[in-house]
Specification:
single chain, alpha/beta, Rossmann fold, Protein-Tyrosine Phosphatase, Chain A, nine-stranded mixed β-sheet, globular, peptidoglycan synthesis, EC 6.3.2.9, UDP-N-acetylmuramoylalanine--D-glutamate ligase, cell division
């Protein structure tokens, strides 16, 4: 009997993981990447004798597939995707495909900002509490690769809107939506409503047995909730008002009350993650932990000793009384707002890169209050100059991480913070945000 073909577009972490899982389940696998495949992934494909191509998409081979698994980074407007869809071949995400082959339960975390931190914190709490738990999605090792080779009871998955767009039968046992702010609007016809609808797909297929956790202070989330029917049990969280079942902040204490006989109360001073936005992230993770009946002492301990991820408000060094912080993962305006909000000193802000249709207005007040100078790091900084020329005295253009750090070093005074928080994607000067963050850290270490 001839094997059914699965074509996989994109040979990064998710694509290669999907290829491994598809091969394990007896499919004829063909992997196609329009760019160059990184050597570590090429070696994996070769070791498994999986057929692949790079720097091209051969339509004749791809269109033989019964299903196509595409990388989240490939837009629906790509020619090959249009051709696949015109033949009515289903296009799905690696997450959708992998879920078919596991009985594990999933905790799925999405939001414009904070999802990586919240995913990592949730995983940290669950793992410390002794649960048999995996970490995947937009972070760590591919979900499909882990389903192919591991046997977890639970997965904590960081889910982007691009992944959600290609998820249909998938169901989150516990879904978390942190916030909805303008991001990636270039993929959503520049309409926030389209992007919000994409985020709400996190609740699709949920039943009354499932859980949906969301921010009751987020206007766009509340708006989007009016357009969908949510069948799951809902637990909101807020720092503005008391919540009967969920989490809230009162006189600098977080209260998590899922079970009224076993409430968790914790001072925000005990949290490893500081800043207003991190109170939200901690509440969301705390609700997940309480839903899973993890003991209060274990939750407190994990929330107190958590170390944040690389490139997210990562303290690099203190040199001559100046702190250097790497927040390269801040690829949208809202993330940069949060970064500025969490820094308690005057800031020399390094920002810029590929602008995804950014609206810098929301940053203006924060920039006026805290930013002494902006060091632009990007090929085209015109929009940053236009946005902030009335708010900041000094705006300087630089074209490498080394140059940006040197300029910031000369502008900073003792007690200041040099913050790399770009509000933009990195593809003009760097491979990705990790490359940008690593080059920034290397430049700081040379000072």
């Amino acid at each position: 009997m001839e094997k059914k073909r699965i074509a996989i577009l994109g040979a990064g972490e998710s694509g290669v993981g999907a290829a491994m899982l598809a091969q394990k389940h007896g499919y004829d696998v063909f992997v196609s990447d329009f760019g160059t495949i990184p050597s570590q992934y090429k070696e994996k494909l070769e070791a498994l004798n999986i057929v692949f191509e790079e720097n091209t998409h051969t339509a004749a081979e791809i269109l033989k597939a019964v299903e196509v698994i595409k990388s989240p980074g490939i837009p629906d407007t790509a020619g090959i995707i249009k051709e696949i869809r015109s033949r009515n071949i289903p296009v799905l995400s690696e997450i959708e495909f992998a879920k078919r082959y596991t009985k594990a339960k999933t905790i799925c975390i999405t939001g414009s900002n904070g999802k990586t931190t919240t995913t990592m914190l949730t995983y940290h709490i669950l793992k410390n509490a002794g649960l048999n738990v995996g970490l995947a999605g937009n972070i760590g090792h591919s979900f499909a690769a882990q389903v192919a080779s591991a046997d977890f009871d639970w997965y904590v998955l960081e889910i982007s809107s691009f992944m959600l767009d290609d998820m249909y039968d998938f169901k989150a046992d516990i879904a978390v939506l942190l916030n909805i702010t303008p991001d990636h609007l270039d993929r959503y016809d520049y309409k926030l409503g389209n992007y919000a609808a994409s985020k709400m797909r996190i609740t699709q297929n949920q039943t009354s047995e499932d859980i949906f956790i969301y921010c009751a202070d987020d206007e766009e989330t509340l708006k989007a909730l009016k357009n969908v029917k949510v069948d799951s049990k809902t637990y909101p969280f807020s720092i503005r008002k008391k919540i009967e079942k969920g989490a809230y902040l009162e006189s600098n204490n977080i209260h998590i009350n899922i079970n009224l006989n076993d409430q968790l109360t914790m001072s925000i001073t005990e949290l490893a993650l500081q800043g207003k936005h991190n109170i939200y992230n901690s509440m969301a993770s705390g609700i997940v932990a309480k839903v899973l009946d993890i003991r209060n002492t274990a939750i407190r301990e994990s929330m107190g000793d958590f170390k944040n991820i690389e490139h997210r408000l990562e303290h690099v060094a203190r040199i001559s009384g100046v702190d250097y912080i790497n927040d390269s993962k801040a690829t949208n305006v809202n993330s940069t707002w949060y970064a500025l909000e969490s820094v308690g000193t005057d800031v020399i802000l390094i920002m810029g890169g590929v602008d995804k249709g950014n609206d810098y207005d929301m940053l203006k007040d924060m920039v006026r209050q805290k930013v002494k100078a902006i060091v632009c790091l990007g090929k085209d900084n015109k929009r940053i100059h236009e946005a902030f020329e009335d708010d900041v005295e000094i705006i300087v253009n630089t074209f490498s991480a080394h140059e940006a750090v040197q300029v910031a070093y000369h502008l900073a005074k003792k007690g200041n913070t040099v913050l790399l928080s770009p509000a933009c994607a990195s593809f003009d000067l760097f491979k990705n945000y990790e490359d940008r963050g690593n080059q920034f850290k290397a430049a700081v270490k040379e000072l």
